[in-house]
């Protein structure tokens, strides 16, 4: 499956820029490529960048999801854009997609940054949110303000509601513009971690970023992180939870830029 790509790069290509791998940005569940625009614009001043809508998200096609399938989507899309090998940067679900591709096709991944997700089943599921979203009754016409009022009953959290508003098609015949039913049906796979055969590792440079207030990356994950990614480093972003790139964007950008400049 070819995925939707937002590509940005420097105005002038220099020999140094031309020789560096492209940077690929992968969003988390219910997000989309354009949500990472702040970081993409910063990186694109000196590097070729591709922000990607994973399947069922943004403007990409829909279908059932598991990490091997999504990694295959990513590989096909990057090959189509002549963007391999690449530096992969993934948050949450996007981080699992990036790790799966790195472990199964390590030669296609130049370096790897994973934001607040371990190579493990994580829990903290979104079944309740997905089921609530499927129940939303859309009227014949809806504007943005009306969409916000409509979602208040189903999604009381302001931040989560603002995120989900980006996934609504407004105007006549409103509805979800994402593959919501496919996402909900695939949530057991999304929350899980795929089977990785014994001996598969990614030996390249790997940086895990963890939110200081997030429950996702925990000490019990360090052993599997070391076994699968023997060259990994872990950095903690204080005063941030799972959405660490939203809650502390400057620190996230600093660590991201330092990593991509070094590798």
Describe this structure in words.
The chain has helices spanning 15-18, 37-43, 67-80, 93-104, 127-134, 144-152, 158-165, 180-191, 222-228, 244-247, 249-262; strands at 5-8, 23-26, 49-52, 86-91, 109-115, 141-142, 168-169, 171-172, 175-176, 206-211, 232-237. The chain is globular, with a radius of gyration of 18 Å. It folds into two domains: 5-122 and 193-262, Rossmann fold, CATH 3.40.50; 127-185, no CATH class. Strands 1-3-2-4-5-10-11 form a seven-stranded mixed beta sheet, sandwiched between helices. The chain has a two-stranded antiparallel ribbon with strand order 6-8. With 263 residues, it is α/β, with parallel strands linked by helices. It contains eleven helices and eleven strands. The longest helix is centred in the first third of the chain and has 14 residues, at 67-80. The model has no long low-confidence stretch (mean pLDDT 94). The protein is 38% helix and 17% strand. Strand 4 (86-91), helix 4 and strand 5 form a beta-alpha-beta unit.
């Amino acid at each position: 499956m070819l995925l939707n790509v937002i590509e940005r790069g420097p105005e002038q290509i220099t020999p140094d820029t031309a020789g560096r791998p492209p940077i690929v940005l992968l969003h988390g569940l219910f997000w989309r490529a354009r949500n990472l625009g702040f970081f993409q614009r910063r990186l694109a001043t000196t590097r070729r960048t591709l922000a990607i809508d994973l399947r069922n998200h943004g403007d990409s096609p829909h279908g059932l999801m598991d990490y091997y399938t999504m990694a295959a989507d990513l590989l096909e899309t990057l090959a189509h854009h002549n963007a391999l090998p690449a530096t992969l940067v993934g948050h949450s679900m996007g981080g699992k997609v990036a790790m799966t591709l790195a472990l199964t096709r390590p030669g296609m991944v130049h370096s790897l940054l994973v934001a607040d997700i371990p190579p493990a089943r994580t829990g903290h599921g979104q079944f309740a949110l997905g089921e609530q979203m499927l129940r939303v009754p859309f009227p014949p016409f809806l504007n943005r303000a009306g969409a916000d009022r409509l979602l208040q009953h189903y999604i009381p959290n302001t931040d989560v509601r603002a995120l989900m508003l980006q996934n609504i098609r407004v105007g006549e015949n409103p509805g979800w513009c994402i593959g919501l039913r496919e996402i909900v049906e695939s949530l057991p796979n999304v929350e899980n971690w795929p089977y990785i055969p014994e001996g598969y590792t990614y030996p390249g440079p790997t940086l895990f970023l963890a939110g200081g207030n997030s429950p996702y990356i925990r000490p019990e994950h360090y052993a599997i992180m070391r076994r699968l990614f023997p060259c990994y480093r872990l950095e903690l972003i204080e005063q941030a939870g799972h959405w660490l790139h939203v809650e502390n964007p400057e620190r996230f950008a600093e660590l991201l830029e330092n990593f991509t400049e070094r590798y």
